[in-house]
Amino acid sequence: MSHSAHVDLVDYDEAVARFDPVIGIEVHVELGTKTKMFCAAEVEFGGAPNTQTTPVSLGLPGALPVVNGKAVESAIKIGLALNCSIAESCRFARKNYFYPDVPKNFQTSQYDEPIAFDGYLDVELDDGSIFRVEIERAHMEEDAGKNTHVGGSTGRIHGADHSLVDYNRAGIPLVEIVTRPIEGAGDRAPEVARAYVQTLRDIFRALDVSEARMERGNVRADVNLSLRATPESPLGTRTETKNVNSFRSIERAVRYEVSRQAAVLDAGKTVTQETRHWHEDTSTTTAGRVKSDAEDYRYFPEPDLVPVEPSREWVEEIRATLPEMPADRRRRLQGDWGFSDPEMRDVVNAGALELIETTIAAGSSPAAARKWWMGELARAAKTTEVELADLPVTPEQIGQLQSLVDSGRINDKMARQVLEGVLAGEGSPEEVVVARGLEIVSDDGPLLEAIDTVLAAQPDIVEKIRSGNLGPIGAVIGAVMKATRGQADAGRVRELVVERIG
After folding, report:
1. Does residue 494 lie within any of the structural domains?
2. Which stretches are annotated as coiled coil (predicted)?
3. Are 310 and 335 in a shared domain?
4. What pLDDT, on a 0 to 100 scale, did the predictor assign at position 361?
5. CB 3.0 to 4.6 Å from 359: which of 318, 335, 369, 476, for a disulfide?
């Protein structure tokens, strides 16, 4: 079935009024270690296919795996940041499953003995309310290789002439974080899902365990969703939407599945337990393979690896080095900057926190940094449909722009023109000011000339001002500003006009 085929949907608001959505999210994060999980193959993004392999990652006979200590440390950091207990001893298992992109034909994963378990994460939603997501486990495993299906129109195996496989990714360390069923989110389930993955991404970055770039697949989310008649009813049949790779799409995928499953149930049919593929272009999901439960795979204890037994001293050492968590940092910065709750929320939702922080470090006041990023630059990002951070301007340049305003060399109106120039690739704020001739005229000579010309043309106004009626002075200032193409300092013009009329 092509993904443009007609699918019945129930309006989202109607669906959540009649059904109770329950979600579960599995997040895979690629750890930023130098080498793979079980061998010394070096990992670098974007390398030529099959250049980052060793006998272990190719599953060659007789090659023995060794656990990457750095990956274990990163997994413990993640577990602690998610308020989990850290296992005193845990083992790896072989998950026997035919993967064309796993040359040894099993994935090494922590099946029933995760390194971290029983945690939670408090997630802040758009309106500032806190939603607690219970975390069942965080376990270590390895990534699979990557298939490329050649020929055919969809890029999938169906209809392809042949497939290529790149084993560079096979064996990269992953931590998979699995939530317990998330209940009680109601109509806010899409928002909870997005905010949860967003918070996780921020934590990975703060811990420095991963670059955590979703667009590169460093963070991948699988979203499980089921509907039930009431919060008291047993759980419904779930679908698992795979590899949703942006925050916006996570939200959209949940909304879509709620609407689709509600239509299936309304038609008196049953929801099929299956994986579903998310289509970014149409914002829809289509059926993948019928999904088996974990119990249907065969797991065997991995005979080539000893149990991982992190000592309590080491766990406490790691705990002592944990950085400030993103939510605490936000609260601290909000206090330092003096932003109101709604202002701070807007900043966070726009992805502008780091940008504003760096702009302030470059010498701008918090209020000015916020004004630029949430005003002109947010509009420019919206118009060009890019993220704020991807605009062709740096926080340092915004800091420079603001200091040009603060020093009185340019006014606000000119600053906007300078920014236009920077965004158009005309160089730094300073270079644009010079090239476009955007500088306030501070030399009184040209100003006095302009004032004299304006006053000579309007002798009646001069009389009014002389007699103490200062009303018309605004019109004089306006005319002088016009004559100097807005490059005069209005305050100085006013002083000079008053002096001249004296």
Report:
1. yes
2. none
3. no
4. 95
5. 369
Q: Which residue has the higher pLDDT, 350 or 360?
A: 360
Give the chain's domain count. Answer: 3
Q: Please state, in angstroms and rounded to a whole number, the distance separating the CA atoms of residues 99 and 173.
A: 17
Q: Name the average pLDDT for the chain.
A: 91
Q: Residue 397: inside a domain, yes or no?
A: yes
Q: Which two tokens stand for residue 112?
A: 């029933």
Answer yes or no: is 4 within a domain. Answer: no
Query: Which value, to the nearest 10 degrees, does the dihedral of the CA atoms of residues 358, 363, 368, 369 take?
Result: -10
Instruction: Using alpha carbons, list the distances in angstroms from residue 19 to 10, 12, 224, 284, 406.
Output: 11, 10, 16, 20, 56
1 domain-assigned:
no
Q: Give the confidence band of 456 by pLDDT, cuts at 50, 70, 90.
A: confident
Eight-state DSSP code of residue 24: E
**Euclidean distance between CA atoms 379 and 366, whole angstroms:** 19
Question: How many angstroms separate the CA atoms of 432 and 434, rounded?
Answer: 5
Is 436 in contact with 417 (CB distance < 8 Å)? yes
Do 311 and 348 lie in a common domain? no
Report whether pLDDT(301) > 60. Answer: yes
Measured between alpha carbons, how far is 485 from 471 in angstroms, rounded to an integer?
Answer: 23
**Per-residue confidence (pLDDT) for residue 295, from 0 to 100:** 62
For 81-113, how does the pLDDT look when each residue is reduced to its tens digit (9 = 90+)? 999 999 999 999 999 888 788 888 899 999 889
Q: Which residues pair with 165 in a beta bridge?
A: 147
Query: Region 366-382: what's the mean pLDDT?
Result: 95
Tokens standing for residue 232:
């008291």
CB 105 within 8 A of CB 94: no
- Residue 351: what pLDDT? 86
Amino acid present at 313: E
Q: For residues 56-67, give the mean pLDDT.
A: 92
DSSP one-letter code for 17 = H
As separate numbers, helices (DSSP H) first and strands (DSSP E) second, the chain gives 17, 14
Distances (CA, A) of 306 to 65, 93, 137, 259: 10, 11, 21, 47
